[in-house]
Amino acid sequence: MSPLLPLVRPAVQLPTGGLTLLGANFWSRQGGPLMWRTFDESLVREELGVLAEHGLDLTRSFFYWPDFHPVPDRVDEELCARFGRFLDLHTEAGLGTIPTFIVGHMSGENWDPVWRNGRDLYRDVWMVDRQAWFIREMVRRFQRHEAVVGWLISNEMPLYGGSGGAPTSGDTTGPGHEAVTAWAGLMVQAVRAAGGVQPVSIGDGAWGREVTGSDNGFRIRDLSPLVDWLGPHNYHMTDDAIRQHFVPAMHAELLARFGRPVVMEEFGLSSDFVSDEGAADYYRQVLHTTLLAGATGWIAWNNTDFDLPDQDPYRHHPFEMHFGITTSEGRPKPQLLELQRFRELLDKLDLPSCRRAPTNTGIVVSSYLEADHPFVTEADAAAVRDSLLQSYISARLADLAPAILHELDGVPAAKLLLVPSVKALTAPAWRALAEAAEAGSTVLITYSSGETPVQRGPWWPGLDKLAGVRKLLRYGLTEPVTDPVVTWHFTEHFGDLGPGDSLTFAAGGTPDGRCMLPVEPVDARVVARDSHDRPALLERVVGAGRIVLATYPVEYFAARTPRVNPDATVRLYRAAAELAGALPDVVIDDPNAFADIIEHADGRRFALVVSESPEALKVGLRTRGSGEIEPVSLEPYGVELVSLPARS
């Protein structure tokens, strides 16, 4: 039988004429969105100079639509001339920029040209034509300027134009996403028709259902063939420090599957919400975890703080004044210093010549996150998304560097396949998992009844045969978990766990979701039992591999529990990887830090070590075949790049 091949993890580079796409979204501190009315050339030169001095090579810039397009058939030539000088200043500073056309949403308010009069931005033919005309006019004027390295159609268009009327009744195949996709295609064509040859994307924030589980009309699967990169915008808030750090990385992983570069188009925070130390920690975490997740560009929000308390939107959203990486006096904030250090790391790596090392672990993403399955409640997608994020966190902290495998794209065999807290996959996907086990995969499936009462229970055809058990469920009923903490007692060896070992899990979730699967073994081996002597973990040998069934939704439990990470799922995944022979070349025996391998085309290899601890750590790295590496000291939430020995 052929050996199982490692899984490739994509990290596509965007061709940008030598820039490495590390920069900031830009408004001058004099005026913010209204900066073009009082354009101060000397101030803008100074602001761009500060960015360049700290290693940034890019801005994202904005045609504030109400000002640049004051009447339907005319643009403001004076403002265009000012934008031309703005581009010249970029060239002088050694920076590039990505102009953004339809800027109707900005910082907590929508801004219409006075002539829009409520017309639909996607379906009104005249309104679509006016947007395309404006784009052509801007591209025609500026497409030859060397400072322009790309184009963005909009700024967070779902917040400005809405979802295009995407249906909310459960029939997600209606005209909403079709109108949005047609609009996007026409806008991209307008760029090309005017001679714009630079890369282009939409600027929608990449909040489609493929990432969020909620359909906003901007379907990434439909839009990705139209664009040259995908650009997530991340301003999430969670209830767990590690979860907060990993959300942007998970979004990058979900987007990387579409074969386009992933540029972190907007990320950041208001200093009104966090201390300087906390701001630096967050920037450091987002930059490095998204690098390891396949992102190849980063544009912080935004370049400066503002002192504009009487100007909308800052009057009513005052925290929006302090998202800057410099103060309103132009002084660098800790966030900018983190970007500068990240630039040094990118240069040391020579990022364009690097790739993410292949992996032996894949996480299967249920198609019920994004597909048009009929009569399926969207509410269950939230549990799929959140359990997936928790699985990714635990696999990362176990050093497994997981690949994201989407059911819609097929499920390949790999040494270790994780199927986290799953209520439903399609019948062909269950068949593919059984075939993967026959071929040699260790398939770890954790049960879930879902989070809603809609057809509550396992949508698993042939669960008993697949797992080698007999389920003991009663129709229409669940087996609730009443213990606040679930403990598994190991009775058999499972990887490096064995008799006498135990794992404990906080049991979070809704009454519909906080349930377990009662079973009795038929031809499966009981590896661990719960405190009520019920099977908690079972293994069935299948062909060259095995099916491992966890009767508790441990990822879902953790996803619904505040301040839980790292939890015992890290230990479970590490043991499963030991059993499957799926451990990577570098591991750390501390769940508060993880490592991942970056490979250079010239043969050099690096381990990027990331701490998820608020305390200083000293961790040892073990390498396969080379033994111990000198321990690495990590500052709180710190990172270190370690050169690895050459392959023997």
Describe this structure in words.
There is one protein chain. With about 650 residues, this protein is of the alpha/beta class. It has three domains: about 20-350, TIM Barrel, CATH 3.20.20.80; about 360-580, 3-Layer(aba) Sandwich (Rossmann fold), CATH 3.40.50.880; about 585-645, Sandwich (Immunoglobulin-like). It is built from 16 helices and 29 strands. The strands form seven sheets. It has a nine-stranded mixed beta sheet. A seven-stranded parallel beta sheet has the order 5-4-3-2-1-9-7. It is globular, with a radius of gyration of 26 Å. Mean pLDDT is about 95; it is low at about 165-175.
Brief sketch in words of this structure:
This protein is of the alpha/beta class.
* Unreliable stretches covering 5 or more consecutive residues: 165-175
CATH class of the largest domain: Alpha Beta
CATH topology of the largest domain: TIM Barrel
- Biggest sheet features: 9 strands, mixed
Rounded to the nearest angstrom, the radius of gyration is 26 Å
- Based on CA inertia axes, which overall geometry fits? globular
The count of DSSP E runs of length 2 or more, i.e. the number of strands, is: 29
Number of domains: 3
What descriptive keywords fit this protein?
about 650 residues; alpha/beta; TIM Barrel; Rossmann fold; Immunoglobulin-like; 9-stranded mixed beta sheet; 7-stranded parallel beta sheet; 16 helices; 29 strands
Secondary-structure blueprint:
Layout: E1 22-25, H1 41-53, E2 58-64, H2 65-68, H3 77-93, E3 96-103, H4 125-142, E4 151-154, H5 157-160, H6 175-193, E5 200-201, H7 209-212, H8 220-223, E6 233-234, H9 241-256, E7 263-264, E8 266-267, H10 276-292, E9 297-300, H11 334-349, E10 354-356, E11 361-365, H12 379-397, E12 403-406, E13 416-422, H13 427-439, E14 442-447, H14 463-467, E15 469-471, E16 479-480, E17 485-490, E18 502-506, E19 515-516, E20 519-521, E21 525-530, E22 535-542, E23 545-550, H15 554-559, H16 569-580, E24 586-588, E25 593-600, E26 605-611, E27 617-623, E28 627-634, E29 639-643
Parallel strand pairs: 1-2, 1-9, 2-3, 3-4, 4-5, 6-8, 7-9, 11-12, 11-13, 13-14, 14-23
Antiparallel strand pairs: 10-25, 15-20, 16-19, 17-18, 17-21, 21-22, 22-23, 24-27, 25-26, 26-29, 27-28
